[in-house]
Amino acid sequence: MACDRSISPPPYRLTFSWVAGLSVQIFDEENYEGRVGESTVDCPSVENRFGMKDVLSSKVLSGSWMLCKGPNRDDGFKLAKPEYPCRKWDFRVKSLKCLMESVHQMTTKFIHLQP
Does 76 map to a domain? Predict the structure, then answer.
């Protein structure tokens, strides 16, 4: 059987599958006690969103996160471990930032072709 070269494959486009998974929990007391806030996106004001004056413990559920000194800041404390039962940073936390390299790493793992 000969190959019919007049038939072309259907057009495909590159798409990204977003997998829910960027998540962090913050607590206003040590040892994961007190008020808890959970976020899956950047949070410009911990006080406005969660009613917290400061963050004293945290749990990174997935992704890479930074506790920041102010709103929309790029400086702060990168949460390198999954759990911080007590404060390891030397400032009052004002905001949360999801680090973009983690978003890039997650999305590039799930690239696929769709018709």
Answer: yes
Q: Could you tell me whether strands 76-79 and 111-114 are parallel, antiparallel, or unpaired per DSSP bridges? A: unpaired
Residue (of 103, 108, 58, 105) closest to 81 by Cα position: 58
The residue assigned the tokens 């990168």 is 78
Instruction: Provide the domain limits for residue 81.
Output: 22-114
pLDDT tens across 37-61, in order? Answer: 999 999 999 999 999 999 999 999 9
Indicate the SS3 state at residue 110: coil
Cα–Cα distance, 72 to 108 (Å, whole number): 25
42 lies in a domain?
yes
Number of domains making up the chain:
1
Establish if 16 belongs to a structural domain. Answer: no
The tokens describing 15, both together, are: 């798409």
Q: What is the pTM of this model?
A: 0.69
